[in-house]
Amino acid sequence: MQPSPVYPVRVRGDLDPAVSRWLWIVKWILAIPHLIVLLFLSIAYLAVGIVAFFAILITEQYPRALFDFNVGVLRWSWRVRFYALSQLGTDKYPPFSLESDPAYPADLEVDYPERLSRGLVLIKWWLLAIPQYLIVAALVYGGRNSFGPLAILALVAVIALLFTGVYPQGLYDFLMGINRWSLRVRAYASLMTDVYPPFRLDQGAREPDAAAS
């Protein structure tokens, strides 16, 4: 088996070994200022994506300033998810920033593509991504009238944390895999890369240097 290259969307989430037993109960309240900001940033994200669509169609390039902005929004949303929502891996409050911060335990990077396909930009976000959408929906949202695996596993993890003071490593790694997959698909659908997301659950805090194909 040949090693698979690192995907151009890299998601990091380092578990804080001293994460609180109980703070997860109120983190979603503490994160409300971030959620309000992200609501407006998400509107801008969509608008920038539309502008980028036409720019790629005409020039085969995603304008760098627009690219960096949307990567920043994706990074910000991941930090909030990591802190308060779907990972709950740290008690360190997220920065109000679009910029990368190596000191924060969660981060996201996307390699800037020098050239993007005019043809793919027409179909990848709605047609080619359909299988990925279905898998991510199953992992995150589950079936109709039921909680998805992401929410259930996160709840199990924090209940274990509450009673034992330890975040189960296996659950943490699996949740990171789900979050990483969903972020890769979002970046692909947002036209940030032409590289199709791999059908694999890359678990763990750091992006693997290579994974078996």
What does this structure look like?
The chain is mainly alpha-helical and 213 residues long. It has one domain. It has seven helices and four strands, in the order E-E-H-H-H-E-H-H-H-H-E. It has helices at 27-30, 32-59, 64-84, 118-128, 130-140, 149-164, 169-189, and strands at 3-4, 9-13, 106-110, 211-212. It has a two-stranded antiparallel sheet with strand order 1-4. A two-stranded antiparallel ribbon has the order 2-3. Helix 2 crosses helix 4 (118-128), helix 5 packs antiparallel against helix 7 (169-189) and helix 6 packs antiparallel against helix 7 (169-189). 31% of the residues are buried.
Task: Give short descriptive properties of this protein.
213 residues, mainly alpha, two-stranded antiparallel ribbon, 7 helices
Main sheet record: 2 strands, antiparallel
SSE succession? EEHHHEHHHHE
Determine the N-to-C terminus distance: 6 Å
Oligomer: single chain
Strand order within the widest beta sheet: 1-4
Tell me the radius of gyration.
17 Å
Bin the helical content: 40-55%
Task: Name the shape in a single word.
Answer: globular
Number of helices: 7
What number is the mean pLDDT? 94
Indicate how many domains the architecture comprises: 1
Beta content? 5-15%
**pLDDT < 50 stretches:** none
- Number of E-type strands: 4
Q: Structural class given helices, strands, pairing?
A: mainly alpha
